[in-house]
Design brief:
single chain, alpha+beta, 3 domains, 12 helices, 6 strands, about 15% strand, elongated
Length: about 220
């Protein structure tokens, strides 16, 4: 596997702040970079009908580092797994400071996540069990789906452990501070929570919406 090509791909993606890059645009960038830095081996690969790069990309895909999207049998774009994971982590860090920001989903990235890197979980049926068995999941990204047409969200496994619940509570608190519609929020929580979690949802809503009443608890 040609590490120079891989390095160029990740550099190009980072420069464009994108986890999905257009293949032809990357080739143009790589060719200009190779000429400017006198890299004849890369120039040769690109000149040779652009075919010598494909085996490197296929090896990278096989190892689980990327996904190649094809159009009419030809590589059209490249999804770089590590970059999209890092972007999800950054988005959750931003939500901690700006709770108005939406949770990330596939539409945000403009891509359908490949099955090999995402596990879909229905919150009402699977989430509690998932928290107990999170380390057994092999995919780096979890897609949480909700009932009643609520938009799914994407989260990395490590963020579930460190930031997901905190971000959800921050969003809930911000909404209640501005809207003060605790009845509506409670009814929405009832659609996704079950058992003891559901029973406690009203207390959670009131406490978050009126934190000054609990400042001495």
């Amino acid at each position: 596997m040609d590490n120079k090509i891989i390095d160029l791909i990740t550099t190009f993606a980072t420069m464009n702040k994108a986890a999905v890059i257009n293949y032809l645009e990357f080739l143009k960038y790589a060719e200009n970079y190779a000429y400017n830095n006198n890299l004849p081996d890369i120039i040769h690969q690109i000149r040779d009908q652009k075919l010598e790069i494909i085996p490197t990309l296929m090896q990278w895909e096989y190892k689980g580092y990327c996904t190649l999207f094809r159009k009419e049998g030809n590589v059209d774009s490249i999804l770089i797994h590590s970059i999209i994971e890092d972007m999800i982590r950054v988005l959750y860090a931003q939500i901690e400071n700006y709770a108005e920001l939406p949770f990330p989903d596939e539409a945000y990235f403009g891509v359908t996540m490949p099955e090999r890197m995402v596990s879909a979980l229905e919150v009402r049926a699977d989430f509690v069990n998932f928290l107990e068995t999170i380390d057994s999941y092999k995919t780096p990204i979890i897609k949480l789906t909700f009932p009643n047409g609520i938009r799914p969200l994407l989260v990395t496994r490590d963020v579930v452990k460190t930031r997901l619940i905190e971000c959800a509570l921050l969003k809930l608190g911000r909404y209640l501070q501005y809207k003060m519609n605790s009845g509506y929020i409670h009814s929405r929580l009832e659609t996704v929570l079950t058992g003891s979690l559901e029973q406690g949802s009203k207390v959670i809503v009131v406490r978050i919406g009126k934190p000054e009443a609990y400042q001495y608890l």
